[in-house]
Design a protein that fits this description.
Number of strands: 2
Shape: globular
Strand order of the largest sheet: 1-2
Strand content: 5-15%
Structural class: mainly alpha
């Protein structure tokens, strides 16, 4: 894909961007706890996927400035969703770890969103469903890049 300004590739990229954004927006509305911001939920999701991390590591993974992540972590800690523990190698740093309450909330959120998506997929043809199953690893790769 050398020149996205021309042809079918540009149309496909535009369509993919638009569809992913709309689907993402709709998924965000399938929240279990309305008191958490999408950013707070994203941080909890990152901790679930990647394990405990320092605030600086979380800031890099979430593409936010470290001072912003410090505020987000403080909010999550006040809500009982993360705890700060001493860093094993550097006493100046803390490690952020999600609590059991956060794990339960994330599991319930995943369950609700998966059920919503499964309901949407009921309207797909067998061929569309096969295409979606084949595309899922590719979308995952794009999301991790």
């Amino acid at each position: 894909m050398s020149d996205l300004s021309l042809g079918d590739d540009a149309v496909a990229v535009n369509s993919l961007r638009s569809a992913v954004m709309r689907l993402s927006r709709r998924l965000k509305h399938q929240r279990v706890d309305e008191s958490l911001s999408p950013t707070e939920m994203s941080v909890l999701g990152t901790l679930a996927r990647c394990g405990s991390a320092t605030p600086g590591e979380l800031a890099r993974k979430e593409h936010v400035q470290p001072p912003s992540m410090t505020r987000i972590v403080a909010l999550l800690e006040a809500k009982g969703l993360v705890r700060l523990e001493p860093h094993p190698d550097d006493r100046r740093q803390k490690v952020v770890t999600r609590t059991e309450r956060a794990e339960s909330m994330l599991e319930e959120s995943r369950r609700k969103r998966n059920a919503w998506l499964a309901e949407l997929c009921e309207g797909l043809t067998d061929e569309e469903w096969a295409t979606l199953r084949a595309a899922a690893p590719v979308l995952e790769k794009l999301a991790e890049t």
